[in-house]
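Hi V.,

Quick status before I head out on leave. The structure for the redesign project is tokenized and pasted below; the design run finished overnight.
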């Protein structure tokens, strides 16, 4: 039959739905709160006035603003007349699967991976995560008994609230996603340790360990130690350590993060850790460099397979990044400029929410010291309505439920706020409008 859709490849499984996506009802996860009564008529009048303003505001995605991208425009004049890397590699030619040593050295410290075990690739860390999963389905990981494609089921643990792109990527390949509460110190390790010890189908866990998306939480030393040393039923269990915000501080007080890579190695679990990072929110989001850090065995597995797909990364781009950022102090200096631009936006969100909702009992929110997001918790059962009301008023928000696998927030209470891209005045206007929508949703909740 003409134009019939092509069948999905065997490694793409039927995606399991939300009913099987929870470990146990997660305690303390975005629970609804006791709220003070809201005057319905007053809330409706305020909302009608908001709609009448005809706004068009967008705080959906954590993108760098144009002003942030301007900070890296010096890249466009580089690498100048330089053609060779420090090891003599002609960056214009093929080869060099591991990337340029000078750039790997710059990010070895922030990503907490020895430079010789850190690979620099294309512009996207998400691409590296995708390829890691694909290769695990197609070829046995070090320590694995079989390919993931040959397993009866593959499951990942998902700390929630979490990153929607992680969930969507795993769902694409039919991986069953199990929600685990994210606490102020990281994932609930009592739940994590139980699940990984009792079920060999649990092959991985998604982690954004520093300034986590969307809460801004940084994992505690104890959480990192337990992740590194816990007993797992699956010999090929992997921690997908997406250290996306390793250098994205909003203040000079940089949040400390224990070294998972070193701790896992000391515990005899070096192969357990896949580290990911990128310059996507450091320089150019569409023209940066992604990083993959792993044990020697994992890197040999990776490069042996990826060599079938590519002859090497964009080393010209890597050289210009090494020249532009110079060293670890250069990265820190550059990121202070980012903080000067986006810090006031985070402060404005907190100031407005505190003034308008602080004593109302209608909401709670995180106050991150780094990263790109704020997590807003509204009364249970109202997040979707808040997002709907905001959309009708011309304020685009990330869909309610995006912070959970399958879009299934059991409490319908979490909303992710992304304040980085719009101008400060637009952020302030959007948050004031959001407050109006929170009040109306609470007032009319049945």
């Amino acid at each position: 039959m003409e134009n019939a859709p092509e069948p999905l490849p065997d490694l793409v499984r039927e995606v399991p739905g939300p009913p099987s996506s929870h470990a146990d009802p997660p305690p303390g996860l975005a629970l609804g709160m006791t709220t003070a009564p809201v005057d319905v008529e007053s809330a409706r009048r305020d909302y009608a006035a908001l709609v009448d303003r005809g706004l068009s505001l967008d705080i959906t995605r954590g993108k760098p603003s144009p002003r942030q991208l301007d900070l890296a425009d010096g890249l466009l004049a580089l690498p100048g007349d330089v053609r060779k890397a420090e090891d003599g590699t002609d960056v214009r030619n093929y080869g060099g699967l591991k990337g340029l040593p000078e750039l790997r050295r710059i990010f070895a410290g922030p990503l907490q991976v020895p430079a010789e075990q850190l690979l620099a690739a294309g512009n996207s860390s998400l691409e590296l995560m995708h390829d890691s999963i694909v290769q695990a389905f197609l070829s046995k990981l070090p320590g694995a008994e079989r390919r993931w494609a040959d397993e009866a089921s593959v499951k990942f643990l998902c700390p929630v609230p979490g990153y929607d792109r992680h969930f969507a990527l795993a769902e694409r390949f039919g991986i069953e996603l199990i929600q685990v509460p994210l606490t102020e110190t990281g994932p609930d390790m009592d739940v994590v340790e139980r699940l990984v010890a009792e079920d060999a189908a649990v092959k991985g866990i998604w982690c954004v360990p520093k300034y986590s998306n969307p809460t801004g939480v940084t994992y505690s030393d104890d959480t990192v130690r337990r992740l590194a040393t816990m007993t797992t039923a699956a010999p090929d269990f992997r921690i997908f350590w997406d250290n996306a915000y390793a250098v994205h501080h909003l203040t000079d007080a940089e949040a400390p993060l224990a070294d998972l890579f070193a701790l896992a190695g000391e515990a005899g679990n070096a192969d357990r850790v896949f580290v990911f990072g990128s310059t996507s929110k450091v320089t150019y989001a569409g023209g940066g460099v992604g990083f993959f850090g792993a044990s020697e065995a994992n890197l040999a597995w990776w490069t042996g397979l990826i060599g079938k797909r590519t002859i090497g990364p964009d080393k010209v781009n890597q050289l210009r990044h090494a020249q532009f950022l110079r060293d670890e102090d250069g990265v820190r200096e550059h990121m202070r400029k980012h903080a000067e631009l986006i810090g006031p936006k985070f402060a404005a969100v907190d100031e407005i929410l505190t003034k308008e909702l602080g004593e109302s009992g209608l909401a709670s929110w995180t106050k991150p010291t780094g990263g790109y997001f704020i997590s807003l918790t509204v009364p249970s059962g109202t997040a979707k309505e808040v997002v709907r009301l905001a959309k009708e008023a011309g304020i685009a928000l990330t869909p309610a439920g995006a912070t959970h696998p399958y879009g299934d927030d059991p409490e319908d209470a979490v909303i992710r706020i992304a304040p980085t891209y719009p101008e400060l005045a637009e952020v302030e206007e959007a948050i004031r409008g959001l407050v109006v929508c929170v009040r109306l949703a609470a007032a009319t909740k049945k």
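Above is the designed sequence. The first strand starts at residue 57 and ends at 59.

G. will cover questions while I'm gone.

Best,
W.
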